[in-house]
Amino acid sequence: MMTPSDGPLLVVDDLHTVFHTPRGEVRAVDGVSFQVAAGETLGLVGESGSGKSVLGRTVMGLIATGPATTVSGQVLLDGRDVHALKPGQRRQLWGPEIGMVFQDPMTSLNPVKRVGTHLTETLRRHLHCSRKEATERAVDLLNQVGIPEPVRRLTQYPHELSGGMRQRVVIATALACDPRLLIADEPTTALDVTVQKQILDLLASLVSERTMAMILISHDLGAVAGRTDRVQVMYAGRTVEAGPTRTVFDSPDHPYTDALLASIPQLSDQPHTVLRTIEGNPPDMTRPPRGCRFGPRCGRADDTCTDLMPALVAVPDGPARQVACHHPLLSIESLEPNAPLTEAGHGR
Amino acid sequence: MLAPEPVRRRDGRTSLALAGAAILVAGLGLAGWAFTTDVVVTFVRMVLLAAGILLAITGLGRLFRGLLGRKVDVVFWLGMAWLVLVLGAALCAPLLPLGNHDDSVAGLTEPIFARPDLGSSHPFGTNNYGLDVLSRAVYGARTSILVALLAVLIGTVVGGLVGMVSGFVRGTTDRVVGILSNALLAVPPLILLIALGSVLEPSVRSIAFALSLLTIPSMVRLARANTITVAEREFVLAARALGAGRVRLLRREVLPNVVLPVLSLAVVMISVLVVAEASLSFLGIGIEQPEPTWGNMIAEGQSGVMEKHPFIVVVPGVCLFLTVFSFNLLGEKAQKRWDPRSAKL
C-alpha cells in the first residue's frame, strides 16, 4: 500500500463499536475519528465507561466481531484497513506494528511464565531469531525500560517483581518487536503516584527515541496533561472535544471538559473543601439521550441540547480545536456560531 | 544468660525424642501383642490394636519433633512410605522372591488356607487353591494400581483437553460438551460400570477404559471452569495483542495455569478408581480369577471363608484401605498446595 511518508500513521474514521446485548444495543464507540502521526502522542480521556478502552481495542482490531458485536467505520494503519484484514494477517500486525500496554501489570503477565519467556517468545515468533539472539534482545529491552540487573530478571517470575517493575516488563514486551504504534490503556492506574510519573516519563521518552506514535488512554487528566501533544475528550462513546492538549486544558470549550478539570482536587484547597463533582451519572448506554449525551448533566443545556445531537465542529478558539456542543465555552464570545448563552440554563 | 539457652532447648528436644521413642515402642508392643494373643475376644483385640497403632503414631510424631526440632506430619509421611512400598513392590513384582500367585495347578502341591506365619515360605498364608496370599497381594496391587493409573491418565488427558477447549472456545462447542458431560454424570456410576462390564471383555485395558468414563465428566468440568477464569485474565488478552494464535494461547497461556488444579484432582481420582476397580472385581465383572486383584481377593472371603480364615480378607482389605487413604492424603496436600484460590497465582 502506498502512503505518503509524512501522512498520519493511523487514521480512524467514523468508528462505531456496537454491542448487541439482551437489554438492547450498546453503542460503546459511536462515531469517533482521529489521526495520529509518527512521533506524536494522542491522549484519550474520559470517565469510566466512556468507551475509551473499547475504542483502544477496536483500533487494534482486538474486539472479536460476531453476532453480538459489530464494528463499522475505518481504521487505517499506514493506509491498510485493519478490520478488512483476515484474522491471520491482523495477527501479524500485533507486535511488529501495534503494541498494547494494559492497565494492570498484576494480571497482564502470566504468573507461571518467567519474565524472560514473556519477552523471548514474542521475539522468536515475530522476528524468527534464535534463542540466544532473543535472550540478548530481551536483556537489551529490559535495559531500555530501566530495569536494573536485567540478566537476573529474565529468570524471575512476575510475582517476584514490584508493580512498577512489572509494568516496565509489560512495556518491554509491548515494545519487543518495535511497533510503530503503541496503545497504552490506562498504564498507570494500578500504580503508586510516584511510580506513575516514572512510567509516564518512560513512555514519553520511548516515544521520542523511537519516533513511535502513542495513544495514551487515561481517566487521569494529570497523566495526560504534560505528556500528550493532542487530547481527545470522550463522553458516552462520543468525542466531545479535541485539540492540542495545552489549549484544551487551558481554556476548555466543552462544559464537560470544564467540569472534569474543575473536579480535580487541588492540594492548595482549604481543608474540608467540598470536592466538586459532576452531578448525575453517565447515561444508560442502552438508552442514551436523544440529543447531547451530556445534556442531562450539563448546566448550560437547553431545549436544543435535549433534541439535537451536536456535531463535532471546528471552533475558532485556537488552532485545530474541535468541540461538539451547542453552547461551547468559547473564550471569544463574539465568534460563537450559535445564539448567545441562555442564562436560564445556567448554574444549578 | 545467653549461653545456656540452646543447651536447655537441646535437652528439651532430647527428652522429647526419648519420650517419643518410649511411646512408640509401647504402642508397637501393644499392637503386636493384640495382634498375636488369644487371651481376649476378637473385639477387644481389635480395639487394643487400634489403640496401639495410634500410640505408635503419636510416639513417632514426638520422636521426629524431638530429633528434627519441627513438627512433622507423621501420618502423611507414613502414607507416602506406604505408597512407595506398594508402588515399588508392584513395579518389581516379577523380580521379588514371591510365591506362586496365579498358577492353581502348581498350587495343588501347597497347603490350602495355610495360616499366616512370618517365618514360613507363605508369610501371609495361602488361599483355597494353595496360592500365596502375599504374592497375590503384590500382584493384585500391580493390576489395581495399573488400572487406576491408566483410567486416570485417559480421563485426565481426554477430559482436561475437552474441558479446556470448550471453556476457551465457548459457544456451541461448549454447549454440546456440557450436555454430553452432564449426561454422563446423570448415569449412576455403578450401573454404568456393570453395563460396560457385561459388554466389554474383562481385561485391564477395557476396565481402565470403563473407569475412565467415570473421571471424564468431572475432569471436563474442572478444566472448563478453570479455563474460563484464566481466559478472562488480562495476560491472555496481552498475549493475543502480541499476535499469539488460539493454539498458542491455549498451550502457553491457559494450559500451564489449568494443569495444576487438574492434576490435584487426578491424584484424588486415583484412590476413587482403586476402590471402583476393587468393587467391580469383587462383583465378578472386573478382572477374573485366578489373576489377582484386591477386589477379587476380598471376594474369596465370601460364603463363610472369612469367618474361618480372616487373613484371606484382611490382607487385601488392609492393602486397599491403606493405599486409598494414602492417595487421599497426597491428593489433599496437592489440592491445598495447588488450589489457585489459596496459591494466589
Structural features, described:
The complex is a heterodimer of chains A (348) and B (345). Chain A has two domains: 219 residues, 3-Layer(aba) Sandwich (Rossmann fold); 94 residues, no CATH class. In chain A, the strands form two sheets. An eight-stranded mixed beta sheet of chain A has the order 6-7-8-3-9-10-12-11. In chain A, strands 2-1-4-5 form a four-stranded antiparallel beta sheet. Chain A is built from eleven helices and twelve strands. Chain A is an alpha/beta fold and 348 residues long. In chain A, helix 3 packs across helix 4, helix 4 crosses helix 6 and helix 6 packs parallel to helix 7. In chain A, strand 9 and strand 10 form a beta hairpin. Chain B has two domains: 69 residues; 211 residues, MetI-like (MetI-like fold, Orthogonal Bundle). Chain B contains 13 helices and no strands. In chain B, helix 3 packs across helix 12, helix 4 runs antiparallel to helix 5 and helix 6 packs across helix 7. Helix content of chain B is 75%, strand content 0%. The two termini of chain B are 46 Å apart. The mean pLDDT of chain B is 82. By secondary structure, chain B is an all-alpha fold. The interface between A and B is medium-sized, with 32 and 18 residues.
